[in-house]
Amino acid sequence: MNKRGRLYASESYNAECEFVERIHELGYNTYASRLYRTAPSGRGARRQPSAERLWYVSVNGKGRPRRGFKTRRTQKSSLFLPRVLDRKDHEMTWLREPRIEEETEEKQREILLPNNYNAYECDRHPGMFIALSKNGKAKKGNRVSPTMKVTHFLPRL
């Protein structure tokens, strides 16, 4: 975290890379900058790094980091769940071979529509279609039909 409260990635270790980890009673962790703090200020006075209020690592709803001096220990965006690392967490899971009993992928049936678009129906669950909303989020398969625009995809070449 720099002196303006912005979180950034650094190639080398320095004093701005140090954070104090605090474990809270509900099982959450917070991370405060060891270097930067804010003094209590009067109304309209400009805040300067000093020795009173800590600057916390915080992430907004879109996943972007918030500036340190705008964060508090009690805000939900500053609370992080600790991850307990086990021996199996250190293995490279993406290299693991799928088991025979595991279904690795769903089979989809491609349907050519009259308007030259494609729709994809699940073989295991007939009547369930792949659909994407305008924002690109997946929609539930039982809530859509092949006549809706959200299920229309351009044909493969």
TrEMBL record:
InterPro entries per UniProt: Fibroblast_GF_fam, IL1/FGF
Segments passing through the bilayer: none
Superkingdom of the source species: Eukaryota
Protein's UniProt keywords contain Transit peptide: no
UniProt xrefs under Pfam families: FGF (PF00167)
Keywords tagged on the record: Growth factor
The UniProt record lists the keyword Amino-acid biosynthesis: no
GO molecular function: growth factor activity
Signal peptide range in chain numbering: none
Family stated for the protein in its record: Belongs to the heparin-binding growth factors family.
PANTHER family (UniProt xref): FIBROBLAST GROWTH FACTOR
Name the UniProt record assigns to this protein: Fibroblast growth factor
Provenance organism: Bos mutus
